[in-house]
Structures
1.
Amino acid sequence: MKRVITQFVTAPMFLVCLCLVMALESQGEEKGDNPMTGAVFTNSQPISNGFVFVEGQYVDAPYVISRKDLAIYINDKFIVTYAPLVKELPLPEKDRPVCPSNISTNAGPNDQVVTKYLYRMQNYLVAKQGRAEVADEMENILKTLPCIKDVKRDRGNNECAIITYMNGKTENMGLVPPSRKPVITPTNAVEYVSRTCRNYVERLKKGDFYRFAGNGSSIFTFSAQTAKDELPGLVKVLRSSQDDETKAKQLREMLRLPPISEEESKVFVANLCPSKQLDERVEALIKGDKSDK
Amino acid sequence: MFRTTTEIWCWTTGIRRGRVGLPGSLPDTLYVEGVSPSYTNADVVFYLSTPTSCTDSAKVTVVKAALYTDTNNDGAIETEDSGEATYKGFEPGRILCVNGFGKDATTDYLAEIKPVVQPSLGNGTAKLEALLGGSYIKVWTTTDKTTEVTLPKTYDLSTENPPGSLYVDGIATGNVQLAWSYTSGAVTFQDKVAMLIIPTISYAPVSSNAYVWSSLPSLGVDDGTAFQDQIKDQGFKVTWFSDSSASDTNFEQCTLANYKNMINAGAFTVISHGDKGEHLAVYAEDSTNGQAACDTWRGGDTNLVTRHYQGFWCVVARSSWLTANWQSGMNANRTIAMWSICYSASDNPGTGEASVKEAAGGRWRSGYFNPTDMIEARDVNNKFLKRMNGTTDNARKRTAGEAYDGGTDYTSNLKMDGNNWTTLCPAPLADNAVFPDTAAGNRKGWGCIIFDTYMNQNNPASDALLKLSGCPTTDHRWFGNSDGVYGLGFDFDKTGGAGTTMRAVADKCRNDGGSKGRQMDGDRVTPSGDNREWSF
């Protein structure tokens, strides 16, 4: 009877929660300046502050941040996707994996049968033992494999070993997995991306500069105050009559960005189309700065 | 008729009214003022004579007891009783840093003072004492601090000569007033100088580049975002080097060139795996291609190791590699290094490898003894950098040492080391930052603004410090010590009584380092770039 009541109560509660999430999704907007931490984000209201460049191209304000699945867009321009980062953490093996009988004596470091077995075994042991014990046992297991000739602990890291295979190949192998765990899981991925979206909203409202490149792998950003320092010079270089190579060189020197490759600088120069809005907004920055002095 | 020297003036009243020209006619009472000190004892002679040749005389010694120091902080001590000596009793007076740890751990700063009794006398006593802030200073006979002078110190002039110079060492912050006096019988002459002992001046990172190395973003990057958001409002330009997937052979922005270029960072954080004495730098898929990609990434550098974990291949940078490739650059750049990787604060006694955070160098270094995760690293980055940028703790923890506070309110897993006197960008001192800070009175004087960080002198002081309204101000100038400048000073003439407002301009007040430096945070609370104004 008790179980029936519990189910009776739980089911409507789940339905209510589901409806709430759906309502938030369909509502599709952040409310005012108080973003709902943890809530699902879909679209921001237009933001008139900030400067956004995507793959070298200035994007006209106002900016609307939007999330589509696990990807983020600004004014419908793709910024980054988090889909490749989503990791389903493996469930611990219930039973000790059995060593496959089909391991070849010629197997090497990337043999799928061996690596899959070792992955499962490591997963099984980590759930039950401390790291030192796991390393010891993995060493012993490796020594029993028909493809392995020798296992010696790495003098640089006792949780690793130098493996010599029967086929003569060697590798440095981690006997236990690294400690820091992935955090983006299928369960929390949307919330994680939503949080990132809210951060862009908050920072663009403050007037920050963003340059996105390489499908999100390269982000360059600075504050509104630094924008007053940097943007007038940047636009001046881009608008000058010099050749693109000179502009790219000047751009790199001006921004003091040695890690930005020449190729990237050239893309920045080549992709920037004339933008009246950018000129006007930078002019306003300069005027605003002078009136502050 | 009187005959005397130019060393005195004579008055018919005790309030300096009715000056009597000498030689002159005979009044009932005269009041004598010393104008300049005697050359020798009793070298001023009052000689009274009458037409009938009746004569008498009296001898006077004009004694000068004076204490001099570099009151206007221009590097010179003026011993004339004009210029800086006319306002040497007013705050701030001689400004002196407690210690030199902002530069290195051995530098110390001393302020020379010159106690004077003229003429040289064989009687009476001279005394040096601190009327205010005596516990903030020590006084030494020489700059090598061999012999301390305990205050109050009295010199019996019948047996000893007072020193020509003494050296004041600041040991705690606050206002100090030193007095030097000469006493003979019931007569005492006293002179005073003001001093201000300020905290050690910090250095900020040279480079304004801040980097986030995020070669495995699946570990979560909220710690990198926290680092980015807290630091960019202090003038840093943040670049992310990311590899969006470890399940391929493309390292994207996490190239070896960029890894080596991390030495250009003024501040950085690393989101990745780590172990005792090593950092897992980049990741590739668990395949032959992934292994080959890692081997290629290493570029034949045998001090980088390709390693296989179940699920991926990676390249490992050991501490010895970081020492060889990063440390000198990071130290020169005065980098703030925040390692968000496991075991980054633990050395490896088995191999002798230092901890990653120590090997990689930097002026301030942060890491973890044991495993960490995104949440812990995010909270640490937020707490530490919010203290440093003035968001929390009433903006009184802007130096790295204060922000870390010996680990108070952090997890015990965290370890930070380095030079406590490290800031993100300059700001006026928390206390005693501007002078005069109240109505100064109608006088001439010297005022200033004092920063917590060594400053860039490329901008002329006349542009960095403006008088918005009020009395005439002259000689706007940078001042500091042998290591650099940390303040803007000016002379003022407020004898006309005009209330005066000064402005230190953030755009022109930038930290030392690089060609430009980052702007001052005028109100000490992020964002930076705000001016500081004050009136007197």
2.
Amino acid sequence: MSWVVLLLVALPFTSAALSLYLGHRGELAERGVAVGASGLGLALAAAVAFPHLGDAEPLGRVFASTSAAGPPIELSVYVDQLTAVMLLLAHTVAFLVQVYSLGYMAGDRRYPSYAALISIFTGAMTLVVVADDMWALLIGWELMGACSYFLISHHWELREARAGAVKAFLMTRTADLGLLFAIIVLGMRFDTYRISTIMGEIAAGGFGRDELWLPALLITAAVIGKSAQFPLHTWLPDAMPGPTPISALIHAATMVAAGVFLVARTFPLYLSAPAALTTLGLVAALTMLVSAVYALFTQDLKRVLAWSTVSQLAYMFAALAVGAYAAGVLHLLAHGAFKALLFLAAGSVVHAVGTTSMSAMGGLRDKLPDTFITMTIGFGALAGVVPLVGFFTKDAVIGATWEAALHGRLIWPWVAWVLFGSAVLTAVLTVAYSLRAWLLVFFTPAAAPATFDTEVPEPHEAPLSMKVPLYLLTVPTVLGGLLVAYPELVFGPGEYDLTHPWLAAVMTLLVALTAALVAWQWQRSGGRDPWHPFVLPHPAVDRIYDVGVVRPVEWLARMVRAGDRDVIDGYADGAGIATRGIGWLFRRAQTGNVQTYLMVVVVGACAVAVAAGVAG
Amino acid sequence: MPLWWPLVLSALLFAIGVYGVLVRRNAVLVLMGVELMLNAVNINLVAFDAYFRDVLHGGQTLALFVIVIAAAEIGLALAIVLRVFRTHGHIDVDELRELADRDPVSGPGADQAAAPGADVVQEEGR
């Protein structure tokens, strides 16, 4: 079994190499490799994951280890319930994204590198979730950062694609330093890099409260960067110029989910360090509100979804911050399903309309019936409408914060109260922005084309390869709530306080009220945008980064360039100019008149003779 | 006969030869200067041969060599002069400056430098 895990890690990288090798040799071959390998990966992931769900012993195996000085660095895997569900999530979404890309990226001339990068991305995520050695985890973690850079800048002709890719890479990369230092600190403290051993020792007790605050806070820093939490939350919306399936992959299953996964993986460490939990909770409380407000006002469909991702990730961190492990992980799974659905549906809309701006959409309900149905389910799950998965997991998260606020002893009650208030308010805002986006895309009458010169193609429904993943994703979105009812299926037997009936009733009431309010406002504004498009200023932290980091670096770069051009080049150019000048001087003697040369010879000979006579 | 008589004669001849080589503009006269210098050397060789009473007469032998070489040299040089006259229409050594080192792109005479070369090519190709 453990070899299958290793195979599962190696498979995506092999398929990536094959994709790149095949290149443009044949459409069938390149597409077949990409989709076939991800399908095989999904099958292997299922084979690995299902035996480890529920009441099962975790699988741990060390394949090789170094014997150099210091703690050994190992090639080792560890598959427990968390790894199993993450494997399923990542490989399902990756497979669906590959299938979807058949239609979405049809005719794209960079398809081979695109498919290869998705494969590497999947492989990196697999490595992160199965790795038992922290260095292996770091490798996967960094590979994801690199792949996201390449995939966001897929359309590198666009300036904002390049800028978004650089921003994403720099922000996550900076935060990744936290993980690096955390690995070093933990390795020195425990004399091993094996995660399961370290977490086992911490869980066994013997560590004082907050004794391990340093590695916990360092990991928190890395997670904040990877999962786009405040104050590094701005890279995710700016990563939207990438192809839409990539956004689905990054937002639902891999990149940002890795942050939540890391917290869940090192959860014993967090439980022993409430300082880190408090930090995480406050960051989450702030992030979910701020990003929900941005989602409420932005005009771009994909940016709405991106901000909602940031907001929903903050929900997961809120659950983890109050110690509700199961609620956080379940919300991660639920979000993976419905956000992948939403992004793929948004991709279908973009595919039909040709732009991501919601002002150019509207009235698509009849033209894109399949997209309409699936996206409605996705938005419903995001907003927390009753039978859909988002309702159950969000209720579990809010209930967990409520419980922690009332009688939790893990973090200060006021932090839990802040989280609770923030979560409820964000839930209301989520309904508002989901409903607004839904209305604007599907119901508002389409804006008349501004110019009649350009031929505007009629929006058309996506091909079958794009529709099938959408419908497949509605299955977990609709039925996922069952997992909240029966968490033993995933996490094994235990006490899971996931359902809070009266809180759910209140939340449903709030959802209905908000929805009614937004719908009424929409009616009143004549079927247009429910509230005046109000351009929010760019996130303030971006301006701080701009002034504090970007401009100094650019200034320094200009200085270095000037130094290179004016000082270093000065020496080289000066040597050249001096040589030319001396050459010019000596060339004066070469007149071409032989008699002049001879005159020099004769005069020189006479001078030598005279000198010899005088000296001798 | 004292030694300094032929030596003074040869020095005068050599000086006249150097003068001719350095200042005459006619290539044939320059060659005549060269001949004068060679023969001044010949006088020196013979004079010293006689003065030292050399048994093998190395000086006289060398003088004969020089005469032969001078004949060959003047033949070659006159052929070159003839060639120069054919291509340039004159044998003024002051004007024969194609081998001067000039600035490749700019500088006075750059275009003029190219023109005679082109003439040569045309003449050669005829």
3.
Amino acid sequence: MLKNYISNMRGAVLAALMLCGASLVAQTTATGVINGSLVNKNGISIQFDTDAAGVTLGAAGTSAATANFGAVSAFGPLSGGVTRPSVTAANFTVRTIFDVQVVQGGLTSTTYTLAANLAAAAPTGLSYKVDAVTLTTASQTIQVNGSYNTDIAHNLDLVVSTAAPGAGGPAVGAPITTTINFTATAN
Amino acid sequence: MNCKFNFGRKKALLLLSGLLCLLAASAGAQTSSGQLTITMNVQSSITLVFQNNPSVGTTGFCPLTNAGTNNVGLDLGTASFPGNSHSSACVNYTHLTGAVYEVSSAFDVVVTKANSSSPNYRLAAQISTPPPANVTWLLNNVTLTTAGFTTLDTTDNYSAPITKTLQVQVKNTVAAQVLLETITFLATAN
């Protein structure tokens, strides 16, 4: 009688343990899905970088950089990164070099066209050139086959009249600021 | 029936126009713009260069070395008191007195201005080291010293050659030696 009772109890305990084990196994697995989506848009961006042979740009690596030529004159010393490729009786040219980098994504385009224009009319006695293209307030093409993802050096020339202030020459001894707009268009 | 047909056509037209819009959007050129702001400060400046006189090579006009720059050489050759002796054909050799001789040669100074309303300039000069006793260096008969710049002209015109004659006067008591001077010219805008 006692033997039967013990045997029954053992069986009941074993059955309970098996049930517990089964329920534990069932709770260690779970499934789920994430329905991911991404809209990959195409686009290009432009940034200005400091060239090793030019002045150090302010806010280099952005699309709104600054280039300070410092004090410029026909015969006096110039800031580092500024050269004076020509001096004539009528004018002198000071030059720096800056880099443009255009990055594209999602386009089949392999090159871009770079254009530039002055944001406002050039101050008296001054004209601005990028790679020998004299800038105006109208957009002008600078380069037609720029390569993406690499710095491309461009000459920035300021042609300064040697005339005295008030006689066709620029203002002397005061900062002169000009903004050049650049546009890169995917070919 | 007719109504259904019209509705189908409208649907098709709408789909077509949508597709065209998408195509037009993807065909539009991708552009990016940036701004580079430039700052500078124009300064007035003047420069001085030495040039050969148009009469260079004739007596009294020896050629400059490195002419056209602001750092030139002028070789007056060899000279001595006895016998009006001088080795250079281009120098002007003169006995000033019974005991002093002078060699001289002329050249041009050109001063150019830029971005300046200055009407003219002053010209001065100075020698670098005191000469030996009884040796005098002059420009256009103005004796040069090491004490400071000696004014040569007060109202020279820009961009016009100004002819200057360098003279060296030597007494016959001066021992044989090489006479060297660096003469610094100073142009100052008026």
